Amino acid sequence: MTDNDYTPAGLIAMIRRVHSPRGRRLAGLYAIEGTRLIERALRAGAALEAVLAAESFISSADPRRHALRGELAAAGCPITVVADETVSELTEGRDLGPILGLVRFPPTMTLAELVATTDSQPPTTTNESPLLPFSPSPLPPCPPAPLLFLTALDIVDPGNAGALTRTAHAAGAAALLAVGTSDPFHPRATRISRGSIFRLPVIHYPNAAELLDDLHRCGVVAVGTTAAGGVPLPTFAWPAAPVAVLMGNEAEGLPPAVAAALDFAVTIPMAAGVDSYSVNAAAAIVCFARQSAVRHGQE
């Protein structure tokens, strides 16, 4: 099937097929579900290839659904209409809106390309303010802040992969680095990302060794979390360089070989009797600390 030419049966089959990592890889597509994700895919300019909607979605007089039908038509995205029961089966009864879509994977980017693109950007200056009756003196050039990357290493739960995608986007990360089993394009991950998957580049690595080699080659500092023994996060002096924050598997954390290869290890203070934060909470705390340091010139 090419050029968005899907029969109802063919589209249903493809949506089912891309529920597996192998299916997504072979098709070059991933599935999204619900009104909000379809809206955000369109507004982010994601490559929305086809949409499957329930009869009730098409016949609904709801203004939001009416507007979305118009946006899909304007984007040239075909809508295939099927029975409500069919959509309910595909969504397993979730009430996010009786509509699903297929999105083509974005073009592959490399870490080197992202670092080079940012390094080539000219410094910014503030020369005038439209709110003032005069032009203030030009400020000195302000170079771009060093890049932040969030790394998801062998994350098992797709919900956590989606939450990390959202956290990376909210923290202003340049990309999510997905390593090993981490899969931010799993259907559950895309739902949990709340649309951040359309806005954030994702770079895949088959294993931690290739990730670490690439970080070193591109001059990106590897900062990882450890439950104990690292530099306390509140006192950590962030380097004035691109940084990758490495988050490990939910149960085991970072493998010993990866922990040994870090440039820095940090520990988040916790109350007595608790051995760790959840992986997404820890990622959010560390990313916030890093971005706060950048904003306040503490690097």
From TrEMBL:
<comment type="similarity">
    <text>Belongs to the class IV-like SAM-binding methyltransferase superfamily. RNA methyltransferase TrmH family.</text>
</comment>
<keyword id="KW-0808">Transferase</keyword>
<feature type="domain" description="MRM3-like substrate binding">
    <location>
        <begin position="14"/>
        <end position="92"/>
    </location>
</feature>
<dbReference type="InterPro" id="IPR051259">
    <property type="entry name" value="rRNA_Methyltransferase"/>
</dbReference>
<feature type="domain" description="tRNA/rRNA methyltransferase SpoU type">
    <location>
        <begin position="151"/>
        <end position="288"/>
    </location>
</feature>
<dbReference type="Pfam" id="PF00588">
    <property type="entry name" value="SpoU_methylase"/>
</dbReference>
<dbReference type="Pfam" id="PF22435">
    <property type="entry name" value="MRM3-like_sub_bind"/>
</dbReference>
<dbReference type="GO" id="GO:0006396">
    <property type="term" value="P:RNA processing"/>
</dbReference>
<dbReference type="InterPro" id="IPR001537">
    <property type="entry name" value="SpoU_MeTrfase"/>
</dbReference>
<dbReference type="GO" id="GO:0008173">
    <property type="term" value="F:RNA methyltransferase activity"/>
</dbReference>
<keyword id="KW-0489">Methyltransferase</keyword>
<dbReference type="GO" id="GO:0032259">
    <property type="term" value="P:methylation"/>
</dbReference>
<dbReference type="InterPro" id="IPR029026">
    <property type="entry name" value="tRNA_m1G_MTases_N"/>
</dbReference>
<dbReference type="InterPro" id="IPR029064">
    <property type="entry name" value="Ribosomal_eL30-like_sf"/>
</dbReference>
<protein>
    <submittedName>
        <fullName>RNA methyltransferase</fullName>
    </submittedName>
</protein>
<dbReference type="InterPro" id="IPR053888">
    <property type="entry name" value="MRM3-like_sub_bind"/>
</dbReference>
<dbReference type="GO" id="GO:0003723">
    <property type="term" value="F:RNA binding"/>
</dbReference>
<dbReference type="InterPro" id="IPR029028">
    <property type="entry name" value="Alpha/beta_knot_MTases"/>
</dbReference>
